[in-house]
Structure formats: structure tokens, C-alpha cells
Amino acid sequence: MQLKGLTTPETIDQKVASFCRRLSTQTPLYVNVEPEMWSRQSTCDMNVQKLIEQIGGSQVTGYKIWYLKNKYIEAERHVIHTLNDVFRDPTFNTDGETTVLFAPDKDAATAYDARPMKIREGFTQRSRLFAQVRDQEESFAVRPSNEESWDRMLTYEQWLAGERMANMWLQPVS
Fold it and tell me: Which CA distances in Å does 156 have to 37, 38, 85?
């Protein structure tokens, strides 16, 4: 199930600002997406760690914000890279977006995997229902190990060549 038109907010309007304040005491920032050819889809924490190994810097944990103006907003758990006060997202977006709105997490002490994968809010009855359905669907999603993810997910080079795959795997209820 997809929500047509879900994208990085063009501006930080009142709804976006209010939502981001629930996630962080820091101001959200627009960050350029600059993947390496080896960057893997949906493995932001590992992409950032590899980039740190190569060029230094550190990671910033928080949430990538997706928005359908006045209808729906979603925060996706995410990690970006920083070096010399320059922020960079080395993880490509499967929709090709080259800029993301990033809200640093207000609880820096919480481990990446302990954070909710998605936080959603609908502003209409239909989008609230959509959020509930997506939360329920994703409760069955399987997060593979870091090694499995690194081996299985597409590289940016493969994505540029036209290959596509899902971001998550759903597991049947036993």
C-alpha cells in the first residue's frame, strides 16, 4: 500500500514544524542525498558507518520526514553523516529524491534499533486509517541482520542501472 504524493516537505509549514517538535528539540534541516556507488538501499546506519571508516566524521540519528501536505506526515528512522559541520545523507531514496528533511532525535542515548521504525500522523479520516493499516502491516516486517541487509540490498550503482526491490520483507503469521 502506497500513499501517492508522499515526498520531502517543500517547506516547514506549521504541521511539519509541530510534528518535528514531537521528535526533536533541534530544528529540522534539509540534507543533500549524496550516495556512494557502494551505498545500499535501506541500510542507512551501515552506509554511514562505512563512510565514517573511509573519511571520518560521525553519525547523527533521527528521522527522515515524508509529507503529503495537509493530509499525512511520516517520520522514518534514519541516520545521516556529518563531517566539519556539513551534513550528508549517503543513503539513496528509492523514489530518487535528492534532498531530505531530517529531524535529529531528541533522545540521543536511545540505540538506533530501539527507536520506532516509523511514526505516522494522519490529518484526515482517510489518512488516519492509512496510518493504522501501515502500522499493522509493518508489525509483520522482518528486519534482517546487518550482514543479510548488506548482502541482499541493492547498491546505488545497481539502482542507477534500473534494478528495483522492496525496502522491507513481510513475514507470514505462523
Answer: 5, 6, 25
**Residue 137 identity (one-letter amino acid):** E
73 close to 130: Cβ distance less than 8 angstroms: no
DSSP state of 138: H
| Dihedral of alpha carbons 127, 136, 39, 153, sign | negative
**First vs last Cα of the chain: how many Å apart?**
22
Region class of 99: left (phi > 0), else alpha (psi between -120 and 50), else beta: beta
Helix (H) or strand (E) holding 31: strand 29-32
Element (H, E) at 54: helix 44-55
d(CA 90, CA 36) in angstroms, rounded, equals 7
Nearest to 62 by CA among 33, 9, 20: 20
Q: Hunting for cell 553523516 — which residue is that?
A: 81
As given in the structure block, the three cell numbers for residue 129 are 486509517
Mean pLDDT by 10 residues, the chain (174 residues): 83 98 94 98 96 97 96 96 97 96 82 86 96 90 86 97 84 52
Residue 39 phi/psi, 5-degree rounding, is -55, 140
Alpha-carbon distance values, 31 to 35, 43, 86, 129, 141 (Å): 12, 17, 9, 30, 28
